Amino acid sequence: xxxxxxxxxxxxxxxxxxxxxxxxxxxxxxxxxxxxxxxxxxxxxxxxxxxxxxxxxxxxxxxxxxxxxxxxxxxxxxxxxxxxxxxxxxxxxxxxxxxxxxxxxxxxxxxxxxxxxxxxxxxxxxxxxxxxxxxxxxxxxxxxxxxxxxxxxxxxxxxxxxxxxxxxxxxxxxxxxxxxxxxxxxxxxxxxxxxxxxxxxxxxxxxxxxxxxxxxxxxxxxxxxxxxxxx
Length: 231
Prior knowledge:
This protein is of the alpha+beta class. The protein is 65% helix and 8% strand.
């Protein structure tokens, strides 16, 4: 009887162990196969994270790109500024700032001088200096038109030809390429230069030069006597 009791107890223990194992396996397998559901709040949080992450990275890349673009633009502007600064005029044009017709011609050239190839020098300016203009004195410059083209002093119609070429209108004086026409044009201009003061209602060149000399001497005398000069 004791042997039968032990055998029965052994069978019962084995059955219990099998049942426990089966329940454990079924629970684990069911949990592994069980679908995962997200709540609406967790789904919103996930989408928010997804939205935030690309936004942060894209804004960073945009900031980096815009910064690099800004730096490249500023460097390009600096290079352009340097290039403009390095541009030097080709022609220094000396003109009589008290001659209305001369000033009208100069204003026209200034309006076309977009490339800055012409530097305009007013002979009538009290601060005019011959040392800064290839040694051309006021008297010499007033006698006829003068220009300094790339270091070379020029006079007459050739100055106008260079000036108009610098502003893109060289065809106006294309006739100067013919020697006979250039000679005739210079003769006509010489007559105009000689009498242009009287034609424009101004004193003669001699009187203008005398008046300028007196102004210069008065200034020198006043400076030497600290303003007590009576000349």
